[in-house]
Design goal:
The complex is a heterodimer of chains A (about 1050) and B (about 240). Chain A is built from 36 helices and 30 strands. Chain A has about 1050 residues and is an alpha/beta fold. In chain A, α3 (about 45-65) packs across α17, α5 (about 85-95) packs antiparallel against α19 and α6 (about 105-115) crosses α8. The longest helix of chain A has about 30 residues, at about 155-185. Chain B is about 45% helix and about 20% strand. Classes of the chains: A alpha/beta (about 1050), B alpha/beta (about 240).
Chain lengths: ~1050, ~240
C-alpha cells in the first residue's frame, strides 16, 4: 500500500507519472482503518498548530453567532425544515416535483399528498427569516384548506368546505408555486448567466468572486448534451465579456459537469468518452481559453474518477491548451483515492508547467456511494464511513496541497462550510496562493467573517438555470445525499457548545473505538446470517485488470456436457453429441452436448428414488454445508462461469456477474433458511390438544426443469432448494444452456453433494422432460419457463395414478410500468431502458408495456428515442455493449414476426441500428412502438421490444383493470412522487413484484423474493422465506 | 335447458366470488382473523359441527396471524424499502367426499378458515348428503359477519362446472386420494392459470390440515420495493455517519 506520508516528501512528485498513476486505483476500496492509520499522521496537528486552530475557529464561530444576519437563505430554510423532520422532507419532496407537473389535477393531488399530513403551523414564526415564513405561510394556508378536504363526515358543513376546496385549488397551487419560486431564488443565483452575473454583483462588491455552473440532470440523449454544451458556451462567453469588478476580485470561472456533456459518460464507453466527449470538452475549453475564462471539471460518482482523470490528462496535455493554467478539476476528499489523485495531478502540473486550479471538496454523493456499493456487493466502500474520517482526509489532503513543493503546480481551492475546516486551513497555510469556495446561499455569514479575518480569496459556487429545471435537481441532491445538510444546525445552534465544533477531527477520530464506522456494515455483510455474494467493479482498473487476465484464458476454452447419473459422466454415445455455438457469433464453437437417453432417465430415477431415504436422513447442517460449499466454489470459479455465460448464453459482463452472484445468494440463503427452520424438531400442540413433535422432511424425488435465461442462477436455485430440503434431485437444464449446467454439476459434486442425490439429464423437454414427469416416483417438479409448458407438465403429472405431486411453476409475464406526471423523466427513462432492454429483454421480469400519462408522454418518448440511439448492441463480452444477442434463431424469428406485425399496425417510436459485429449472431435490435391498448398484445414477447401506451390521468383505474385483465401478474413498475397514487396502484395491481420509483428487474435473493401470480406462476417466491416449505412435508416424530 | 341454467348459475357464483375478492383481500389478515374469531365463538356452540371444529378454526387463525399477520420487512441496501406480504389467490372451491366423521368436518372447517384468513373468497360445494352441514357452515359464517358474497354455497352438481372454470384459483378438498387425483386431473385440463389443489387425504390423521405451514397453500406472496432516496430515505445515514460509536 502507498505510504501516505511519502507524499509530503518534496521529490515524491518527481517520480514517473506512470508509477504515480499506479498508486491511485488500488486504493479504490482499501481497508478503511488501515488507510486512515496512514492518513492520520498527515492530518495530525502539532500542539501549537492545534491550539492556534482552536483559537481561530472559536473566534470565527463566536463572530458568526453574534451576527444578526447570520442565518439567511438556504441556511435558514435547512435550519427550520431540517431533513430529519417530516416537514423538512415533505417540503423538499414538493419542491423536487411540483414545478415539473404540467397538469393541474396531478399537481393538486401532489400538494394534497404532501401537505395534509404534517404539522406546518409549528414552523410559523419559529424563524426570523422572511423567506422561511413566506413559504410557511403558503404551506399553512393550503394546509388549512387541504385538511378540510379530509373531513369525511356528511354534514352540510362538509359540502361547504368541499366547495371552498374546489374554489381554492388553483389558489393553493399558485401559492405553492410562488413558494417554490421563492425557494428557487435561494438555491439558484440566476435563471440565466446574465441574470446570475447581475445578481452576483453585491457579493462581488464585498470581495467575493464566482464559479458558475449550469447544473441539471445528466444528459441522457445527444440532444440534451448539445443543449448543455450551448449553455456552457454561452456562460463562458458571457463571463468572458463581463468586466464587472475585474480589478477588485479574481475573475469568475465556469464549472462544468461532464455527465451533462455526453449521454454515455461512463467507463464502459471509455472509447467514446476519450474521442467524442473529449472533442466536445476541448471545443468548450478552447473557447474558454480565447476569453480567458477558467474552467473546472466537477467530480461525480466514484466509479468515474479514473475515467475523468484520463480525460483531464488528455485535454490538459493538448498543445492548444498548454501555457494557460486555468483548466481545473475537483477532487473529493471522502474518496479513499483522493491523496494519490492529488499527487498524480501535481506531478502532471509540474511536468507540463501549467498550474492546475483544484477544488478540494468533501464529496456530495456519500449516501449514493454507500447504496451502490451495497447493491453491487463490493468488498468495501470507496469512501469513508465516518464524517470525521472525511474531515481527517480533507486535512491530510490540504496539508499536501499547501506544502511548498506543490505551490505553483496546484492552486488549491478549499470548498467547505465547516468553521473548523476553514480555520484549520487558514492556520496550516504558510502562503496565500489558495482560495476558499462556498455554495451560493450557504455559509454566507461564515465566509463574510472569514474574509474579514483572513483576507483570503473566496469564490462562490453558484448554480445558474431556470428554477423549473434546477430547483428539483438541487433539492433532489439534498434529499439523496442528506449527510451534507447538518453542519448548519450546529454552527448556529446556540445550544451546541463551541468546544464541540472546534474539536479537531483527528482527536474525534482517535476517540472512536475503530477508525471505520461499525454501524455501517461492509457491503458483503449487509445480510444478517449470510455473506452477500461478492462482485468485482468492472469500472475500476485495479479490479478489472486481474479479472480480465483470467477471463481471457477462460474464453479460449471449450466445454462438454453429458448426462451425469450416479456421479458418472455418461459419454458412451459421444458420436451423437450436438455442437454448441455462441449466440453472438454462430461461427464460434463453444463445446458440445450429449443428450440423455431413456435408459439414463431410468437409472437416474432408480438411483434418486433409492437414495431418498438416506439423503432425507442426513442432518440439515450437512446438507446446508454443501450449499455453502458450492457457493464458495462458484465465487472461486467466477471467471470461468462468466466466460460460459458470455459464450453459451450471450450474456453481457454485468449480466454474467449478476448471474453468478444470484446463484451464490440462492445457495447461501437456502442454506441459512434450512438451518434456521428445519434443523431441530419443533414441539407443538395440535388443534385437538395433542402435543407432538414435528420435523420437516423432503417429499421424495424432485425434478428441476430450468430455463436458458438464467442458466446458472435458476438452475442452481431450484436444485439447491430441493436438495437442502431433503429431496433427491434430477435436473434437466434448458437445451440451449447445458454446458453451464454441466460445469455447475461438476462443482456440485466437488462441493460434497452425494452422487446419488443429484443427477443431471441434459436433453429436450419432449423426451427427457416427459419421461420424468410421467414417472410415479416423482414427488414434485420445479419449473421455470412458459405457461404452456407448465400446463403440459401439470397434465403429465396429473395423469399418474399416484398422490398429487407438488408443482412449483414460474412462468411468463406481461409486465407493465405506470408513469404519472409527477415522475422525473430522466429517472423514468433510465429505468425504462434497463427494464425493457437489459439482457435483450430476456428476463421474466422485463418491462413489456409502458403506460405514460399523456401530459408527459411527448417528453418521455422523446427521451426514450434519444436514449435508444445511444445503446450499443453487440458482442456481449465487450464492456461497452449494452444489449447482447437473443438466445437462438427460433427466438429471433418469433420476435421478428411480432416486430413485423407491429411495424404494420403501430407507430414506431425508436429502433436501434445493429452494427456489423452482429452479422453472425442472433440479434434483435431494441425497438419501441406506441400502441393504443395492452389488449393489442396477445402473448409475452420475450425480447427487447417495448410497447408504449398513453393514458389520461382520469383513466388510471381503467388502465389498472386492463393490466389485471391480462391474467399475468409478475412484475410492475410505478413512477410517481405521489405516495397515495403509487400506494393505490400497488394495492390494486395483481402482481408478485412491484417496484416503485426504480427499475423492475434484478430481484435480489432474500431482499425481493421473486415470483408472480395468476398466469405468471404458482409461487411460492424463489429466494423468499416460504420457498423451502413447499419442498417439504411435516412429519410427526413423537 | 336445465344444463344451461346450471352453467349460468355457476358463472354467477364465480363472478360474485371474484367481485367480492378485492375488498375481502384488502381487509388484511388481522381484520379477517377477528371475523374468524367470531365464527369460532359461534361454531363452538354448534353441536352439529362437533366440539373440535371451533378449535380447528382457532388453530388456523393463530397460524394465519403468526405467519401472515405482518408485512415482513426484508433486509437490503440503504435507500430502499423492501416488504414481503401475502394476499389471497382468488376464489377457492371447498369440496369433500361423503363422510360423516368428525375429522372430515374438522378438515373442512380447517380449509374454510385457512382459505378465508389467507384472503380468498369461497364457494362451498359439499356433497349432497352434507348439504345440511354446508347450510350450518354458511349460516354460521354469515352470522359471524362474513358476507354471503365472500362465502357462497353451491350444490355438489355444480362442482365440476366450478372446477373446470379457469377463473377458479383452487380447490380445497377433503376426502379420499382417488377423488383428489380425479379433481387434479380435471384442474390440469383447464387452460389459464395453474390451479392449486389443497387436498387433505390422510383421513382421521388430518396430517395435512394440521401442518404448521398449511395456510401457505392459500396465499400468493407479494413484494413491494420502494426506492426512497428521492424522498429523503437516506436521512438515517446522516446519523450513522456522524455518531459516536
Amino acid at each position: 500500500m502507498f505510504k501516505a506520508l511519502d507524499a509530503l516528501s518534496p521529490s515524491f512528485i518527481d517520480r514517473p507519472m506512470d508509477e504515480l498513476w499506479q498508486l491511485i486505483s488500488p486504493l479504490y476500496m482499501v481497508d478503511e482503518s488501515e488507510w486512515l492509520a496512514e492518513l492520520l499522521p498527515m492530518a495530525r496537528p502539532s500542539a501549537e498548530e492545534k491550539s492556534q486552530i482552536t483559537i481561530n475557529a472559536t473566534v470565527l464561530i463566536e463572530r458568526v453567532r453574534a451576527d444578526k444576519q447570520a442565518i439567511q437563505m438556504i441556511d435558514a430554510l435547512l435550519l427550520e425544515y431540517s431533513l430529519d423532520t417530516k416537514e423538512g422532507i415533505l417540503l423538499m419532496c414538493l419542491a423536487e416535483a411540483l414545478m415539473r407537473i404540467p397538469d393541474a389535477a396531478t399537481a393538486d393531488a401532489l400538494i394534497r399528498d404532501k401537505l395534509s399530513v404534517a404539522d406546518w403551523k409549528s414552523h410559523l414564526k419559529n424563524s426570523d427569516s422572511t423567506f422561511v415564513n413566506a413559504s410557511t405561510w403558503g404551506l399553512l394556508l393550503t394546509g388549512k384548506v387541504v385538511s378540510m378536504d379530509r373531513n369525511d363526515t356528511k354534514s352540510a358543513g362538509n359540502t361547504i368546505s368541499r366547495l371552498v376546496n374546489k374554489v381554492s385549488e388553483p389558489i393553493i397551487r399558485q401559492a405553492m408555486n410562488q413558494a417554490m419560486k421563492i425557494m428557487g431564488h435561494q438555491f439558484v443565483l440566476g435563471r440565466d448567466i446574465a441574470e446570475a452575473q447581475k445578481n452576483g454583483r453585491p457579493q462581488r462588491d464585498k470581495g467575493f468572486t464566482y464559479s458558475f455552473d449550469m447544473l441539471g440532470e445528466s444528459a441522457l440523449t445527444t440532444d440534451d448534451a448539445k443543449k448543455y454544451f450551448n449553455d456552457y458556451i454561452k456562460a463562458v462567453e458571457s463571463v468572458g465579456k463581463n468586466t464587472y469588478a475585474k480589478d477588485k476580485t479574481p475573475a469568475p470561472t465556469v464549472s462544468i459537469k461532464l455527465s451533462a456533456l455526453h449521454p454515455r459518460y461512463e467507463v464502459a464507453n471509455e472509447a467514446r468518452v476519450m474521442t467524442e466527449m473529449h472533442d466536445t470538452v476541448l471545443e468548450l475549453l478552447l473557447r474558454a481559453r480565447d476569453l480567458d475564462v477558467g474552467i473546472t471539471i466537477d467530480a461525480e460518482e466514484a466509479d468515474r474518477l479514473e475515467l475523468s482523470l484520463a480525460l483531464f490528462e488528455k485535454l490538459y496535455r493538448n498543445p492548444r491548451l498548454q501555457g494557460w493554467g486555468k483548466f481545473g478539476i475537483v477532487v473529493q476528499a471522502y474518496s479513499k483515492r483522493a491523496l494519490p489523485t492529488l499527487v498524480w495531478l501535481a506531478a502532471l502540473a509540474k511536468e507540463q508547467g501549467d498550474v492546475i486550479p483544484l477544488r478540494l471538496v468533501k464529496g456530495a454523493y456519500w449516501d449514493t456511494e454507500l447504496k451502490l456499493s451495497q447493491q453491487n456487493g463490493y468488498d468495501a466502500y470507496p469512501v469513508y464511513t465516518r464524517k470525521e474520517a472525511t474531515d481527517v482526509a480533507y486535512l491530510a489532503c490540504a496539508r499536501f496541497l499547501l506544502s511548498e513543493q506543490i505551490r505553483g503546480c496546484i492552486y488549491p481551492q478549499f470548498a467547505s462550510h465547516n468553521a473548523h475546516t476553514v480555520s484549520a486551513i487558514a492556520t496550516m497555510a504558510t502562503h496565500k496562493d489558495f482560495e476558499f469556495q462556498r455554495l451560493h446561499g450557504m455559509g454566507d455569514a461564515l465566509y463574510n467573517h472569514a474574509l474579514d479575518i483572513y483576507g483570503v480569496n473566496v469564490r462562490i459556487y453558484a448554480p445558474v438555470g431556470s428554477h423549473k429545471d434546477l430547483l428539483p435537481y438541487l433539492v433532489r441532491r439534498l434529499l439523496e445525499n442528506g449527510a451534507n445538510s447538518s453542519f448548519v444546525h450546529r454552527l448556529v445552534d446556540a445550544d451546541c457548545p463551541i468546544t464541540e465544533l472546534t474539536e479537531h477531527p483527528v482527536d474525534t477520530l482517535d476517540s472512536r473505538p475503530t477508525l471505520h464506522n461499525s454501524l455501517i456494515p461492509l457491503p458483503t455483510k449487509i445480510f444478517a446470517g449470510r455473506k452477500n455474494s461478492c462482485n468485482i467493479n468492472v469500472d475500476i482498473i485495479s479490479e478489472i485488470t486481474p479479472f480480465n487476465t483470467e477471463l481471457t484464458l477462460q474464453m479460449q476454452k471449450t466445454w462438454q456436457a453429458a448426462p451425469v447419473v450416479n456421479g458418472q459422466v455418461i459419454t458412451t454415445e459421444l458420436a451423437n453429441a450436438k455442437p454448441v455455438s455462441a449466440p453472438y457469433d454462430r461461427r464460434i464453437h463453444v463445446g458440445q452436448v450429449l443428450w440423455s437417453t431413456p435408459a439414463e432417465v431410468t437409472t437416474a430415477l432408480d438411483t434418486a428414488a433409492d437414495y431418498f431415504p438416506t439423503w432425507s436422513a442426513v442432518p440439515v447442517a450437512e446438507r446446508a454445508a454443501c450449499l455453502n460449499n458450492i457457493a464458495d466454489l462458484l465465487e472461486e470459479n467466477l471467471a470461468e462461469l462468466v466466460a460460459l455465460c458470455h459464450k453459451e448464453a450471450g450474456k453481457t459482463i454485468h449480466d454474467s456477474l449478476d448471474e453468478v452472484r444470484e446463484a451464490v445468494d440462492f445457495c447461501r440463503y437456502y442454506a441459512m433458511q434450512a438451518t434456521e427452520n428445519f434443523s431441530v424438531a419443533k414441539n407443538q400442540v395440535r388443534f385437538d390438544g395433542i402435543a407432538q413433535q414435528v420435523t420437516r422432511q423432503g417429499q421424495g424425488v424432485f425434478v428441476c426443469i430450468s430455463p436458458w435465461n438464467f442458466p446458472l442462477a435458476i438452475f442452481l436455485g431450484q436444485v439447491a432448494a430441493a436438495l437442502v430440503a431433503g429431496n433427491t434431485v434430477i435436473a434437466k437444464p434448458a437445451e440451449q444452456t447445458s454446458l453451464i449446467a454441466a460445469r455447475t454439476m461438476e462443482l456440485m459434486l466437488e462441493a460434497g453433494f452425494p452422487k446419488e442425490a443429484i443427477h443431471l439429464l441434459p436433453g429436450s423437454g419432449a423426451v427427457v422432460g416427459s419421461l420424468l414427469t410421467a414417472d410415479e416416483r416423482i414427488a414434485g417438479v420445479v419449473f421455470t419457463g412458459s405457461t404452456e409448458t407448465a400446463q403440459v407438465i401439470n397434465r403429465s403429472l396429473a395423469k399418474r395414478d399416484t398422490n398429487v405431486a407438488t408443482l412449483i411453476a414460474e412462468t411468463g409475464g406481461q409486465n407493465t410500468m405506470i408513469v404519472d406526471s409527477t415522475a422525473l423523466p430522466e429517472q423514468v427513462v433510465r429505468d425504462v431502458m434497463r427494464s425493457a432492454f437489459a439482457s435483450a429483454g430476456q428476463r421474466c421480469s422485463a418491462l413489456r408495456v409502458l403506460f405514460v400519462q399523456e401530459d408527459v408522454a411527448d417528453r418521455i418518448t422523446t427521451l426514450i428515442q434519444g436514449a435508444m440511439k445511444e445503446l450499443h448492441v453487440g458482442l456481449p463480452q465487450q464492456h461497452h455493449t449494452d444489449v447482447g444477442p437473443v438466445i437462438d434463431l427460433l427466438a429471433k424469428n418469433k420476435l421478428q414476426a411480432h416486430i413485423d406485425i407491429m411495424r404494420a399496425t403501430s407507430k414506431l417510436v425508436g429502433e436501434v441500428t445493429l452494427s456489423e459485429e452482429c452479422n453472425f449472431g442472433d440479434f434483435i435490435a431494441p425497438i419501441a412502438f406506441e400502441i393504443n391498448s395492452i389488449d393489442q398484445l396477445e402473448n409475452e414477447q420475450f425480447g427487447p421490444i417495448l410497447h408504449i401506451v398513453r393514458y389520461k390521468a382520469a383513466e388510471l383505474n381503467k388502465v389498472i383493470s386492463e393490466i389485471n385483465a391480462t391474467g399475468f401478474g409478475l412484475t410492475m413498475g410505478i413512477h410517481s412522487r405521489n405516495e397515495r397514487t403509487y400506494t393505490d396502484i400497488e394495492r390494486q395491481i395483481r402482481v408478485g413484484n412491484c417496484y416503485i420509483n426504480r427499475d423492475q428487474v434484478g430481484a435480489v435473493v432474500g431482499v425481493q423474493p421473486f415470483g408472480g401470480q395468476g398466469l405468471s406462476g404458482t409461487g411460492p417466491k424463489a429466494g423468499g422465506p416460504h420457498y423451502l416449505y413447499r419442498f417439504t412435508k411435516q412429519v410427526v416424530s413423537a | 335447458m336445465v344444463v344451461k341454467n346450471k352453467v349460468v348459475q355457476t358463472q354467477q357464483l364465480i363472478e360474485t366470488g371474484l367481485c367480492a375478492w378485492q375488498h375481502w383481500n384488502d381487509l388484511g389478515v388481522i381484520a379477517r382473523a377477528e371475523l374468524i374469531a367470531k365464527w369460532v365463538d359461534i361454531i363452538s356452540q354448534e353441536a352439529a359441527l362437533g366440539k373440535l371444529a371451533g378449535e380447528m378454526a382457532k388453530y388456523q387463525k393463530h397460524q394465519a396471524v403468526t405467519l401472515l399477520g405482518d408485512e415482513k420487512l426484508m433486509p437490503g441496501p440503504t435507500g430502499e424499502v423492501n416488504e414481503l406480504y401475502s394476499a389471497g389467490r382468488g376464489l377457492f372451491v371447498v369440496a369433500a367426499t361423503d363422510a360423516e366423521q368428525s375429522s372430515t368436518i374438522n378438515a373442512i372447517v380447517g380449509h374454510i378458515s385457512a382459505a378465508l384468513l389467507a384472503g380468498n373468497t369461497l364457494v362451498l360445494a359439499l356433497p349432497q348428503a352434507q348439504q345440511a352441514l354446508q347450510f350450518v357452515l354458511l349460516n354460521t359464517l354469515h352470522a359471524a359477519g362474513i358476507s354471503n358474497l365472500v362465502v357462497q354455497g353451491a350444490e355438489e352438481t355444480a362442482l365440476t362446472a366450478l372446477i373446470e372454470s379457469p377463473k377458479v384459483a383452487g380447490v380445497a378438498f377433503t376426502g379420499d386420494a382417488k377423488t383428489a387425483q380425479n379433481i387434479n386431473r380435471t384442474l390440469s385440463t383447464r387452460s389459464g392459470l395453474l390451479a392449486q389443489l389443497v387436498a387433505e387425504v390422510s383421513g382421521s390423521a388430518l396430517a395435512y390440515v394440521t401442518d404448521n405451514h398449511f395456510i401457505l397453500r392459500f396465499i400468493t406472496e407479494r413484494t413491494r420495493t420502494i426506492n426512497i432516496t428521492a424522498v429523503g430515505g437516506n436521512a438515517t445515514l446522516l446519523e450513522l455517519g456522524g455518531g459516536d460509536h
